[in-house]
Amino acid sequence: MSANTLSVRGLCKNYGGVAAVSGVDFDLAPGEILALIGPNGAGKSTCFNMLNGQFPPSAGSIKMFGEELVGKKPRQIWRMGVGRTFQITATFGSMTVLENVQMALISFHDRLRALWPFAGGLYQEQAFQLLELVGMATQAGRPCSVLAYGDLKRVELAVALANSPKLLLMDEPTAGMAPKERIELMQLTADIVKQRGISVLFTEHDMDVVFTHANRIMVLSRGRVVAEGKPKEVRENPEVQATYLGTGAVYDHSKDTGAA
Amino acid sequence: MSFLFIQFLNGLASASSLFLVASGLSIIFGVSRIVNFAHGSFYMLGAYMAFTLVHKLSGGTIFGFWGGVVLAAAAVAVVGALVEMILLRRIYQAPELLQLLATFGLVLIVQDLVLTIWGPEDLLGPRAPGLRGAIDIFGQSFPQYDFVLIILGPVVLGLLWLLFHRTRWGTLIRAATQDREMVAALGVNQSWLFTSVFTLGAFLAGLGGAVQLPREAVNHVMDLQIITEAFVIVVIGGLGSVLGAFLAAVIIGELNAFGILIFPQLTLVLTFLVMAVILVVRPWGLLGKPEGVVRGGAGAERPIKPLSPTGRNATVALLVALLALPMISGNYGLSVASEVLIYTLFAASLHFMMGTGGMVSFGHAAYFGLGSYGAALTVKYFGVPMLAALVAGPAVAGIAALVFGWFCVRLSGVYLAMLTLAFAQIAYAVVFQWSSFTGGDNGLIGIWPAPWAASPTAFYYLSLLLCGGGIVAVRRITFAPFGYTLRACRDSALRADSIGIDLARHRWYGFTLAGFFAGIAGSLYAFLKGSVFPDTISIATSVDALVMVLLGGVQTLAGPIVGAATYKILHVSISSYTDQWRTALGVIIIVLVVAFPMGIVGFIQNRLLRSGRVEDAA
Predict the structure, then answer these.
(1) What is the CATH number of the domain that holds B9?
(2) Is residue B543, in this structure, part of any structural domain at all?
(3) Residues of chain A contacting residue B488, judged by C-beta atoms under 8 Å apart
(4) Residue of B nearest to A163 (CA)
(5) What is the ipTM of this complex?
(6) Do A103 and B482 touch (CB under 8 A)?
(7) B472 and chain A: CB distance < 8 Å anywhere?
(8) CB atoms closer than 10 angstroms to residue B578
(9) Both B350 and B229 in a single domain?
(10) Could you tell me if B335 and B271 lie in one domain?
(11) Cβ separation of A92 and B487 shorter than 8 Å?
(12) In terms of domains, do B104 and B41 share one?
């Protein structure tokens, strides 16, 4: 058994001949907020999709509290206590905000196949509490199909919290949001996870968000970890500066830095 | 050995005609995303027109014959172009299913048209001049004409390849197949592109029909026969892939040719089994790709809500009226009412599958029909009382849905729909061809209700109890966690998976449940009619159910109920006024699709929303 929420060793993913992720190692302690940053195409989303079981890794191991996640399906990983939000939100458009959270609670309580009770009456209170937590209680009755994007992100957060997760995976949690909303949402997330002792792994392009909220930062470039440490250390790391400013220390001069 | 070789050649010859039809269907789907049910009608029109034109033109000359064939195909192409410009252009934005339904409306109209112009008898065409003889191959004779067909297939394939890869038009078509919005954004006039594609597809179908003239009698049921085979071929080959269609046509052609030697009774089953296997192994067909980018699409459904007080009062009023019906209605009226009730449950079960579950079925009749047969066969062979048969029927239907569903839920969209159709056709073929057990075409008769339910009034109440109960149960399940789970899978597979829902498993259960409820309707239907015929499993019955659901509105819970009642009552009243109920029905369907794409209930809801009477959640 390991005390770490996550412990990733030698994680690799190849697409044909391209190594999208190669040899990524890291640990995530309980209650820690770890940011995964890097330019487009660095392998962040690929890492994420392997962590939550969407793609099988080509090699390596992902252990959560000592239990291997590789080979498990997303739904099994969820049942082990991993909540997830997506880069482009995924919610149930024909359901209300409240019902979206209720759906996750119904699944958590393993009542997906119940034929008799009214789903709308199940776990209403718990769902409301989660919505209050993310500041969406006033919109509980609106369908998700008509929500503003920032609000959808909040709904996703509430849904992700429904299974009392030990780990939250957030893929660009503030993408597509206005600056003010970004700060609010990340502050909210940080408060919630601190309160509940949840570990968070997130990717993000907004450096304000990253440097304000991450306990630790890991920089990926072309599939490899090029730097890791406290925000201050990472900020001063010359290789990271090269990665972001494009001095040519990392990129081949023949390659286009804009490639995704 | 030589005999087998001849069979092989026979297979190739029939593959050519199949390929012509299927390639047209595939090209049309690739570009316009319309599944053209009327493609079989174009084929049939091609054959009939060729029959007339060849007679008019030829004094038995080669030019007369081939001129007639090509003119017939061209005439069908003109019909296709008109259909595209007058009808399809109006509905490209409509949901896929409604487009399908509109083309089915065309099928009905063309059927009546053909009956009116050419009459119900099979017509025997002339043999092709200059190709009347046979060639001797290893001591067996093989018709010369069939050789021409064998060559025709690859020649058309080659021409299509040149057209698509060596002309500007072809490049545009290939681009539109991949991403039509992008093509439009580049300044290409889509309207004419679509019209030209549809015209080409219709031409190919017409040609396919016309060249069959010397080989088989022209008849008015060839449209649905060929469309089923063409669907199978297109799906096996991969939607939108012409080469795939060719490969699949050869496979099916050969399968038919050799299947008839090995399992003469089960050729249809063999075809569909091959399709089922291929789809499970390669969900997008042999050379198909996952469905391309579809932007926009239909807006999301509104959240479902339990009945408002007004709705509840209306329901109670309806129930009271239904209970009181025997006091005012005669026996005929009661038996019509029982039938309406039965179809309403049938439609509600389909709605559960396609509306709530998001799994569109083209073969829902399978479960209705197997429910009927399940009930009838247990009465026939075990002499069980009616109530036991009413349990056995739905059980049979439920088990069939369990087996078929396991395969179907692995696919989605049009492919899923095609596989459901395939299984329904397998069930149909088994029932039709296994006549020693099922009575085949003659059906099973003498399936009368038990004495206590024999009077029309008693049977009506029984139907009201079972169908009403079934509808309430379906509705209840929709509001229960399981119904929500199905909607979750439909709304966002990604999200459902990431909150611990096993999609395939829950969709499978939903599929089975829908089949079971259709089985209840089917069993009752057997006792209502006192007999069962293979018709109950036919495509026509599946389409009836689809029309009912879409007529009412697939996005509403009351839709199937209103739709089924409207449809059945229309059907009964139209057929009592005119013999041409098909045309009338076809016109009604098309008008509905063009004017009320949301269905009757959807239309009413929208009006209420606009006038502010239903509170918009926004």
Answers:
(1) 1.10.3470
(2) yes
(3) 92, 95, 103
(4) B499
(5) 0.90
(6) no
(7) no
(8) 11
(9) no
(10) no
(11) yes
(12) yes
CB contact under 8 A, A95 and B484: yes
Pair B433, B440: CB distance under 8 Å: yes
Q: What is the mean pLDDT of each run of 10 residues along chain B (618 residues)?
A: 84 91 90 87 95 79 83 96 92 79 89 91 82 77 87 94 93 85 87 92 95 88 85 86 92 88 75 80 81 48 83 92 93 93 96 92 95 96 93 97 91 82 86 88 91 94 96 95 95 91 95 98 96 92 88 83 88 82 85 81 80 49
Distance from CA of B338 to the nearest CA of A (A): 27
pLDDT of residue B305: 83
Q: Where are the beta strands (DSSP E) in B322-465?
A: 444-445
Q: Indicate if B406 and B505 belong to the same structural domain.
A: yes
| Parent domain of B367 | 328-610
Q: Is B296 inside a domain boundary?
A: no
Query: With an 8 Å Cβ cutoff, are A86 and B494 in contact?
Result: yes
pLDDT in tens, chain A (260 residues): 457 899 999 999 998 888 899 989 999 999 999 999 988 888 888 898 899 898 899 999 999 999 999 999 999 999 999 999 988 889 999 999 999 999 999 999 999 999 989 999 999 999 999 999 999 999 999 999 899 888 999 999 999 999 999 999 998 888 888 888 888 888 889 999 999 999 999 998 888 888 888 999 999 988 899 889 999 888 888 888 877 776 554 455 555 544 44
Do B77 and B178 reside in the same domain of the chain? yes
The token pair that represents A37 in the structure block: 């940053």
Domain assignment present for residue B341? The answer is: yes
Residue carrying the six token digits 């070789």: B5
Q: How many domains does chain B have?
A: 2
Kindly list the residues from chain A whose CB atom is less than 8 angstroms away from the CB atom of residue B301. Answer: 93-94, 145
**Residues B521, B343: contact at Cβ < 8 Å?**
yes
Whether residue B297 lies within 8 A of chain A, CB to CB, comes out as: no
Asked, for residue B189, whether it belongs to a domain, the answer is yes
Q: In terms of DSSP H, where are the helices of B267-308?
A: 267-281
- Is A121's Cβ below 8 Å from some Cβ in B? no
Q: Give the distance from CA B524 to its chain's centroid.
A: 24
Same domain, B255 and B128: yes
Residue B562 tokens read as 């209103």
Contacts of A106 in chain B (CB under 8 A): 481, 484-485
Mutate to test the interface with B, among A107, A146, A169 (most CBs of B within 10 A): A107
- For residue A206, the model assigns a pLDDT of 86
List, as one string, the DSSP characters of chain A: --SSSEEEEEEEEEETTEEEEEEEEEEE-TT-EEEEE-STTSSHHHHHHHHTTSS--SEEEEEETTEE-TT--HHHHHHTTEEEE-SS----TTSBHHHHHHHHHHHHTT-TT--SS-GGGTTHHHHHHHHHHTT-GGGTTSBGGG--HHHHHHHHHHHHHTT--SEEEEESTTTT--HHHHHHHHHHHHHHHHHHT-EEEEE-S-HHHHHHH-SEEEEEETTEEEEEE-HHHHHH-HHHHHHHHT-SSSS-TTS-TT--
> Chain A interface, mutation test: which of B301, B305, B477, B499, most A Cβ atoms within 10 Å?
B499
Same domain, B115 and B195: yes
> Of B299, B497, B499, which has the smallest distance from its Cβ to A103's Cβ?
B499
Is A118–B301 a contact, with Cβ atoms under 8 angstroms apart? no
**Cβ-Cβ contacts under 8 Å, B494 against chain A:** 86, 90
Domain boundary, last residue among B252, B281, B310: B281
Same domain, B271 and B361: no
pLDDT tens, position by position, A143-197: 998 998 889 999 999 999 999 999 999 988 888 888 888 888 888 899 999 999 9
B479·A119 Cβ contact <8 A: yes
